[in-house]
Amino acid sequence: MSVTDPAGPLLRVTDLVIEFDTPAGRRRVVDGVSFSVGEGEVLGILGESGSGKTMSTLAVLGLVHGRPGVVGGQIELRLGEERHALLDGLPEMLSPGSVAGSVRKDDRRWERHVHRRMRGIWGRGMTAVFQNPKHSLDPLMTIGRQLEESVRLSEPHLRPDAAGTRAIDWLAKVKLTDPARVHRSYAHELSGGMCQRAMIAIAIARLPQLLIADEPTTGLDTTVRAEIVELFRDLMHDRQRAMLYISHDIREVLYLADRVMVMRQGRIVEEASASDLERGVGRRHPYTATLLQAADLPVGEAA
Ligand SMILES: Nc1ncnc2c1ncn2[C@@H]1O[C@H](COP(=O)(O)OP(=O)(O)OP(=O)(O)O)[C@@H](O)[C@H]1O
Ligand SMILES: [Mg+2]
After folding, report:
1. What residue's CA is closest to ligand 1, atom 27?
2. What single DSSP character describes residue 208?
3. How far is the CA of 215 from the centre of ligand 1 (A)?
4. Domains, the chain, ordered by start
């Protein structure tokens, strides 16, 4: 874990603010969120639906598309010797809005800016597994070709036939029963659960420094789910990769994560080590207490 590493954590998010204009006016959906993840560390993110879990992590990926979207904060990513300040230049894109205290943002210019900045980082630096695989897979490319692109990122010197074999190995690792068939299939030829597993393989095969997994096991049946969680755990522990893991399943999060944060209404209401949460050590926010109770886990002291 490198939270105490003199080089600083792999990812540090400070005072992140995300807002959207809606027919009912400006809504703040992420309200001053700060967290960090060290190398080889897994940060689990829990919280009620709509609490800002997905938006907070999409901001790290530079993929918040609503407007104005990210309007404040800092996101720093350290990849080897390189440091990237992902929200640098944001203040220059903001100007006072019509309502006191609100801001306007030059959204188009900001999107171009983010896209240029993120191009070198997506892939090997960080990558994501989202809830909806059909939208994340390329419909015009076989699963095998998409997977081989990932393999080439992490093992650039592999010969093409070896990359093909490695891709099939990854498909077997995510428990797809006929990896060779999946390798030559397109997304529309596979079931939702198969696509989900293929997408997990494509993301993991890149061996990114930081993997962002947003409810990656949703839609999978219980046995496969347990196997996939195991795969994430092995990858993180063996290869010292860092992960942000969002899930509604508190047991899954406690099993995978070193630390856990709990979100509610755009804010972090609790941050604790997974082992303290699991053993009922320390004072708990009432919302965390209800999550623990619902999973038959010891609550500890309610704050
Ligand atoms: N483009 C948008 N315009 C307006 N509101 C948005 C937009 N995108 C997201 N929101 C709102 O932002 C809030 C936070 O959304 P987010 O997707 O981060 O929630 P979440 O914690 O991931 O929830 P879930 O557990 O259901 O996935 C929600 O209330 C959502 O409706
Ligand atoms: Mg979400």
Report:
1. 49
2. -
3. 14
4. 1-121+249-303 (3.40.50.300)
